Target: D-methionine transport system ATP-binding protein
Amino acid sequence: MTIYAVRPHTPDGDAAAARAARPRHGGRVTFENVGKAFDTPGGQVSALRGIGFTVEPGEIFGVIGRSGAGKSTLIRTVNGLEKPTAGRVLVENAAGERADVGSLSIGELARLRRDIGMIFQHFNLLSSKTVERNVGLPLRLAGASRAEEAGRVAELLALVGLSDKRGRYPRELSGGQKQRVGIARALARHPAILLCDEATSALDPETTLSILDLLKDINRRLGLTVILITHEMEAIRHICDRVAVIEKGEIVEIGPVWQVFGDPREEATRALLKPHADELPDDLSGRIVPLPGERTVPVFAVTYTGAEAGEPDLGGLFGVLGEGARLLHGSLDRIQGHAQGRLLIAAPAVAPQQAAQALARLNTLPPRAEIIGYVDGAL
Ligand SMILES: Nc1ncnc2c1ncn2[C@@H]1O[C@H](COP(=O)(O)OP(=O)(O)OP(=O)(O)O)[C@@H](O)[C@H]1O
Model:
């Protein structure tokens, strides 16, 4: 295995190396059977177990899980803030140099961290420094000249849309603006990987979207790999290519976002999705009864997981359900170009004794169908 190449450690050499190191593509991170146990006064706490997956160069990869699932511990193994107690984490930079993070010396770890930027939930800005001094800090620590620092800081502030705030202090900025400063600072040394630790959790929904859009834009423009940990489904849905669901220290589900969200296989994933699942409005759930009665009509729930080829075929659907079919409720969304959602349709033309047959026919169409109950046909 190649250990990180040692770059020249002269101020000018560093600055030149930083310029030259603009990644043509992002870094790769491979978790190989990673485990992490903490020794605590109350005994050992197993935070990670058997973690194995690879984040590919240029991907936006999300890790989602509830509080205490192991997200922070996992992301912190990438830049060596936590050391695995089992397995290894391999980081490959844009030049193809590979490092086993857990085995690096302090000097090698410092060099690895130039290739890995990180942003935090609470921004971690220096309150006594202006925006431009905060952003320039990593460059100053690397020995860049004042002129080099000023040039790069101007570039970065333009990138995150804060050129007019360069002389302000963190206390004069909104949460979203503070996170933009955090992003600019994280990008100062042209990292190949950007780690985002609950980066939008302290922000309101609108600001969250603008920060996520900025991360996506940066990923596209600079080609760097983004690893994002969060408990917010929306953050994953909005920008990630793939997602891993972590539960009690283990990855329980992993795949393209549209697939994991459109057809969750694991209870942990479903639980995280629940607040966003199609719950019935109260008036409708009050009208749906579990068994057929004299004047009831069946209610079909048709679920599009995104695995169906093409757009939902409503003609085929209503062809099976017959005349007078009524759309009671539903939503369809698109994730990564895949239509997903659920439609609830009352079908008065389907007699009770034909319901099973209609269901079987619906299930020959791509979406998944079930009868969820019955409503009064007179309504
Ligand atoms: N330094 C530590 N010492 C002891 N236990 C720890 C330490 N860091 C984390 N843990 C434990 O490891 C488990 C995973 O914690 P971690 O912070 O990685 O979870 P998380 O998914 O990031 O949670 P949250 O979303 O609440 O931040 C938890 O049980 C936690 O208490």
In short: Confidence is low (pLDDT under 50) at residues 1-23. The first strand starts at residue 28 and ends at 40. The chain is about 30% helix and 30% strand.
